[in-house]
Amino acid sequence: MTSLPASAWNGRFAPSPTGDLHVGNLRTALVAWLVARSHGGSFVIRMEDLDALVARREAADGQLRDLAAIGLDWDGDVVFQSDRSELYQAALDHLRAHDLIYECFCTRKEIQAASQAPNGPQFEGRYPGTCRDLSSVARSQRRQRGRPPALRLRSQRTEGNVEDLLCGTHTFPVDDFVLRRNDGVWAYNLAVVVDDAEQKVGTVVRADDLLASTPRQRHLQELLGLPTHRYVHVPLVVNERGERLAKRDGAVTLNELLAAGESTASVLELLTASLGEGVVRRGEPLQAERISREPWVFRPWNNGKPPWVVVGRWTSPSVKDSWTRLHESLSSTTMQGCGSASFSNPPPSTRMLPSAKRSPKKGFIRCGARKSSGSKRW
Fold first, then answer.
1. 54 within 8 A of 18, measured Cβ to Cβ
2. β-pair partners for 13
3. In whole angstroms, what is the distance from residue 318 CA to residue 270 CA?
4. Which terminus in the chain has less CB density within 10 A, N or C?
């Protein structure tokens, strides 16, 4: 891995601007930033705001403030997916030109019923291909019913592998997944593939609930002639019941923890220690395979009791020297051309940022190796 160019480690963080980031989101952002910066890669921020019904601009601004408050910086303007429809359309046109798209008129209820049939797909949620080979007459009849069609990929495979730097090798089904919803909103799998390629991302760091969707995205990269990436899927943060951490669980956002008496530095220390003992080492690039593969169990501040976590043998947060230790751990690694946040003095939690510039523009899969290729762009 030491022979890889810095660009192979270019990273990103891509939240949905629907509310405040909780500690799970901040933890993933920290890992993505550390992986990129400690290897000399660039780091960019992308707001996945395609669904106008839930995305909010003020939420995006608040998320950027929280990232800056824990010392994370980024290169260039923040990218908003809602500004990038032309890029997604170009990818769709390429696939259509190669007969790799078809209209789907199925409702969710119909898909669910088909998947539960005796001869239905064995993987829950997998599209059974109902509309894949409709005749022109059948398609015309369905259009006349007035339900707009979604657009699906005519997949050329039924399964694919993902080789993850942390989670190892896994095989998952690849179905005819949606590229554009029937309400005209671009689907996540298309947008993320186009955006990661256009932003020159080399290593994708994200939560491991997205591990199963990665073979779909790798297949789409192949069909569009885009380079593939290296992946690090970080275990989720869960509550004491083993459920994915949510804001309803208590004080889980940075502002809530600060209001409960924590400092920005202690929250950063909490996040860093949750990765496992010895993961962040002075003067060494962060090695993803050292991160704990167990979900981080987080007990939010409740009734005057401080947060308590379980990760390996580490059971309580330390508040000492977190900024200085992170700064020292990165000080001797290659950072040329990237810029880095200075941790010698932690930025105040109330640091304000101008509004981000817009460029024109219930189960968990537990982490348990590794392949990359590239090809010309469409």
1. yes
2. 45
3. 7
4. N
Q: How far is CA 238 from the centre of its chain?
A: 17
Give the tokens for residue 284: 């060494």
pLDDT tens for each residue of 222-248: 999 999 999 999 999 888 888 888 878
Sole residue written with tokens 């896994």: 170
| Antiparallel, parallel or unpaired: β 296-299 and 11-13 | unpaired
Contact 256, 246 (CB under 8 A): no
Query: What letter represents residue 134's amino acid?
Result: L
Structure tokens at 22: 């909780």
Beta-bridge partner residues of 161: 171
DSSP sequence for 337-370: TT-----SSPPPTT---PPPPPP-----------
Q: Is the separation of the CB atoms in 300 and 251 below 8 Å?
A: yes
CA distance 281 to 34: 11
Distance between CA 63 and CA 13 in Å, rounded? Answer: 11
Query: Bridge partners of 112?
Result: none
φ, ψ of residue 180 in degrees (nearest 5): -140, 130
- What average pLDDT does range 17-25 have in this prediction? 94
pLDDT at 324 over 70: no
The predicted-structure confidence for 133-183, as pLDDT tens digits, reads as follows 999 999 999 999 888 999 999 999 999 999 999 999 999 999 999 999 999
CA gap 227, 162 in Å, rounded: 14
| Residue 314 DSSP class | B
- Whether the model pTM is above 0.85: no
